[in-house]
Amino acid sequence: SEIGLGGFQLGEPTIINNQPYSAFGGMDENTALSIIRKAIELGINTFDTADLYSLGNSEYRLGKALKEYRSDVNIFTKAGNVVANPASHDLSYHHLMASIDRSLNRLQTDYVDLFQVHLPPKTEKEFTEVEKVFKDIKSEGKARYCGISVGIRYEQGIEIIKRKLVDSLQIYFSLIDQKPLEELLPLAKKNNVGVIVAEPLAQGLLTNKYKIGHI
Fold it and tell me: How many CB atoms lie within 10 A of CB 193?
């Protein structure tokens, strides 16, 4: 489906070191499962999540709700971000290979349609490790395609496309920020790289949900 359901909000409230991390989810399981099933009812068959969201709980709930529809849906997940203070990441080969196995277990599936690194590599060592991860994950049948989520890091997205590293990129793109139209999107099309648009409504700013003075 052209419109997919993001799994960021589908996890339960998460407590780490006695501190609430509500941004990683905040709803009960019945509500989450109802949202997923309603999405299917409306014709949505693409679901995007990450191992970070509620420390895997978003994946677990998606797996539970989508198990009976597996052959009819596309499941995307991401790895590489690590909960820490301050926030950290790990794009090493062993971490990412272990992450996909944990994600498959939570999602109750043998493969995902798309495995993504949650942020772009910064060093040549990270690029090399990610390239090897993508090759092995696909050759082992654990993911059909592999990509990278770059958010607003458009210049890095352009570099990644030129390196021929990915099948897809996930970017933030909306009426508020149309910079990808200048170079990134034409380059992706030219190189047959899929584009997943995250936050097309700018976290609700474009829905008139928030008024002046909103806290």
Answer: 20
User: Which of the following is catalytic: 21, 53, 60, 210?
Assistant: 53
Contact yes or no for 147/128 (Cβ under 8 A) = no
Contacts of 209 (CB under 8 A, 6+ apart): none
Query: Is 53 annotated in the active site?
Result: yes
Q: Which residues of 10-20 are buried (b: 16+ CB within 10 A; e: fewer)?
A: bbbebeeeeee
Place of tokens 């599936």: 109
Compute CA distances 201 → 176, 179, 183, 207, whole Å. Answer: 9, 15, 21, 7
**The dihedral of CA 42, 205, 193, 57: what is its sign?**
negative
Please give the structure tokens belonging to residue 50.
Answer: 């990450």
Could you read off the pLDDT of 130-182 as tens digits, one per residue? 999 999 999 999 999 999 999 999 999 999 999 999 999 999 999 999 999 99
What pTM does this model have? 0.92
* Cα 176 from Cα 96, distance rounded (Å): 33
